[in-house]
Design brief:
Blueprint lengths: L1 H11 L3 H7 L2 H43 L4 H9 L4 H15 L6 H27 L2 H33 L4 H60 L9
Helix pairs in contact: 1-8, 2-8, 3-7, 3-8, 4-5, 5-6, 5-8, 6-8, 7-8
Length: 240
Amino acid sequence: MNDLLEEPLAAHGVGLWDLVLAADIVVQAVMLSLVLASIWSWMVIFDRYFRLRRLAALASSFERAFWSGADLKSLFDRAANERHPLAAMYTAGYEEWESARRPSDPAGRANLVARVGTVMRLTLDRETTHLERNVGSLATIGAVAPFVGLFGTVWGIMNSFQSIAMAGSATLAVVAPGIAEALLATALGLAAAIPAVIFYNRLARDIDGYAGRLASFADEVSVEIDRQMDRQPNVPGRAA
């Protein structure tokens, strides 16, 4: 009886790494996929989190320059040398306005301002889509990882029942390795899914907030361009 207890324990060990090495190939594949999914999640989380913080700081700096009274041309020169969505949006809008013929009638001016706003919104949509890239994978991992872990759990329990059948005994030493593998697969599934769901919601909210901020700035630029045409209808640039 003692030999029966010692043999499984010696074969499977007691550490997590020992459990992984002794696990069935299917369970090992499940564990590996969950570990890789978790690593990918954290890569996306850190990349988008710090990128959004940097973009928010750059947007604040550019907005301060806009409201400080700088003329539109100098802001365009600054935006041309910066690489962030707000600068790209402003550059596109200013280029559209600068290249357009200045209409003298109110309807023509309204159409020009609307066209500038549309160009900025299109740029905003393109930049927002770029920001959202890979963020959706967090939602996928959050939804799928628990079920992948559950599959590993079921497979590990099946191995435990097979061990019982082969040993002809339901002792703890016989069933413990398979149950431990199953629980480890469950834990890895939850470890991959929980951060992915939490940070997906956080990043999606932050991206929406940033996009809303840029949309508001686009409206502000359109209003300023309309005012500029009131003051100097034929000359691009913001009045001091």
